[in-house]
What does this fold into?
Amino acid sequence: MKTSSTQVTQIVKQAPLTNYLSRPLSNQDIPHFQQLFFNMVISNGLPFSFAENPETRELFRFCIPAIKLPSAKALSGSVLKDTSKDLIKNIITTAQKDLNGVTAAFDGWTNVRSEHLFGVVFITSEGKSLTWGAKDISSERSKTCDVISHIKDIMDQAHKHQINIKCFVSDSAGEYAAARY
It folds into this structure.
């Protein structure tokens, strides 16, 4: 018995795989890509000039030719401002949602440029730290009345944003300890 087999060859035209590896970014994708690139630069402790490094650009041009890297100026300008605004919104929203109230912890220190700073961190009832801010107080004399003024500012800002502060915590520095009374 003889069997015959018929082979049918069908030619299908397909786009090359490389067409799917790289695509131009849409107008909605560009800010998202810049944000992701910014986060990568910051989380790796890289300077903004990393984006303009010829080797960096060559790597991205090789891997993803359709993507244009943001410049160092864009990263330090509009991308940084947008990121900061988003971060502040997230901090405020997180603090507002804490129905038990937050703890405001503050301290003073001197940075590497010998500036005297006053910093505030909100700690949620779940233990999450939210950096509220730091202020250069180099021009002040670190008196109790200055500390009280900063605490009142924190309270006013929190009230404005409908954030419930349950308590304040500081170290035992003289001006901070005296502000308790």
About this structure: Residues 37 and 77 are 14 Å apart (CA to CA).
